[in-house]
Amino acid sequence: MPANSHESPSQPSSASTSNLIRNSIQEWKGLIEPFLVLTPESPLPGLYPGTILPGIRFPDLGQEHVEVGTSISYNSNPPTSGTHYPYPAAWGIYKDPPADGFLVHNLEHGGVIISYNPKRIKDQELSQLRQQVRSLSNFNGRIILTPRLNLDTAIALTAWNYLQELDRYNSTAIKVFYDTHIARGPECQQGLCPT
Question: How far apart are CA 169 and CA 149, in angstroms?
Answer without folding.
Answer: 16
